[in-house]
Structure formats: C-alpha cells, structure tokens
Amino acid sequence: MISHFNNHGVKMGYNNPMQYTKGAKAVINGGQYLTQTNAYATSVSGLKYAYVGVNHGGQLITTFFYKTFTGTKAMALGIL
Amino acid sequence: MQIKEILKFDYNYAEYIITDGNYDVICLCLSVPLPNNKVPITGMEVEMIYPFTFDAIDIKMNNDKKEFLIQNKNSHFEYFLRGMIINKEKALVKIDGFVICLEKDFEEGFNDYYQIGDFIEFKADRLDCELKGYPEDHLY
User: Fold this and answer.
1) B37 CB near a chain A CB, below 8 Å?
2) Which of A21, B21, B119, B131 is the most buried (most CB within 10 A)?
3) What total number of domains does chain B contain?
C-alpha cells in the first residue's frame, strides 16, 4: 500500500499511508461491491468515484484510487 | 501503442509503460482483471488512452506551438500534454503515435470553437488505458 499511497494517495490529499488505508476502508464499508472487478466504489463528485480493489479473499486492499465512470456505467453498477 | 513494460500487476490493478515507438508514458490499466484468467503481457496493443483529472479538465488551444509535447511532471502519473485534434465528435487528440480520448470529459465532443488540426494542451493527473480487445465495458 505504500507505493500506492505514493502514486495515488498523495494526490488524493492523504498525508500518510495510514490515512490512505483508512480512506480505503471507508469506501469498503460504505461503497458498492463490484463483483466483476472484486472492488468497491463510491461516488466522490460528479462522475468521479473512489475505487478500492481487494484480493480474492477480500482481506487485503490491493489499491485505492479515483476513477471516472460514465453516467450509464455508474447506473448499471448501481453506484449512481 | 503497446505495452513496453509492466510496472505493476495484481489481478485487478495494473500499471504499464506504454510506448508509441518514440515516446513512453505511464498508464493505469482500465481493462483488468482480464477474462479467463488472462494476464497482460509486454507487447499487447493499447486501444485507447484517457486522461484522468481530479478537477474538471482544463484544455487550452495553442496553435502557436504546433508541436507534440509529452512532459512528465513531478508526480508518478502526471503529464502535461499537447496534441492535435483528429476527431471532434469523439474528442480524439493525437500526440505523436498516441491517441488520447477526452470523451469522458467532453461527452458531446469538442464544440465548434475547436477544429480538426487545432493543437490543444492540458494537464492530466493520470493517464488510463484500455487494452485492445478488452474495453473497460467488458468488466461491467
């Protein structure tokens, strides 16, 4: 998670890897599970979504970043 | 455009160096996980690159400098880019051998202020890519 924090988290406004991980856990707890990618997503603003990937067992966070979903896609995923 | 090097790959996350033969850019992959347990490999073709910006994308026309520009900023993913509009409706911009699609930011395409052949420049906080044959839509 440290390299992901360096490459994604700093620009997302997190000050350290712990904060970044906490942010990812909040997405897992409050977001929509996306079966196809084994990930969780929640709306941030407009069509920007916070996206957290987890491993097969769901115990480990593989990444956390922001991404854009089109309105149609977001609706299909149930996250709009 | 093709994968020159796989920087990271972990089932649902991948980062690559993408090359057009002359220049390289770092991209996050929107196509993973690939179906049927396939994995990305060096040499795979990239269909499209999309800029991601935290805030609304800010594009500026710059026909005074009709030169392609790919400038990696200080952070891992950030680029300052200058390219030529090649398709207004699909908001496609060519930068050397790369084709960048701004359709997610300009769903209706570029307005009439912009014409094919115009050079525009913009900052991307990250570049995302789709592999040929594996559009992001295959996941959803």
Assistant:
1) no
2) B131
3) 1
Report the C-alpha gap between B105 and B86 in whole angstroms. Answer: 16
Which tens digit of pLDDT belongs to each residue from B78-116?
A: 999 999 999 999 999 999 999 999 998 898 999 999 999
Confirm if A52 and A34 have CB atoms less than 8 A apart. Answer: no
Chain B closest CA to A57's CA: distance in Å? 12
Residue A69 makes CB contacts below 8 A (sequence gap 6+) with: A41, A47, A49, A77, A79, A80
Indicate the burial class of B6 (C-beta count within 10 angstroms; 0-12, 13-18, 19 or more).
Answer: middle
**Considering only CA atoms, which of B36, B57, B32, B56 is closest in space to residue B44?**
B32
Task: Give the pLDDT of chain A (80 residues) as one tens digit per residue.
Answer: 888 999 999 999 999 999 999 999 999 999 999 988 899 999 998 889 999 999 887 778 999 999 998 777 777 777 77
Residue A33 in contact with residue A23, Cβ under 8 Å?
no
* Residue B22 near residue B76, CB atoms below 8 Å: no
**Residue B55 lies in domain:** 2-139
ipTM higher than 0.85? Answer: yes
Residue in B7, B10, B13, B53 to test binding to A, most A beta-carbons within 10 Å: B13
Specify the pTM: 0.92
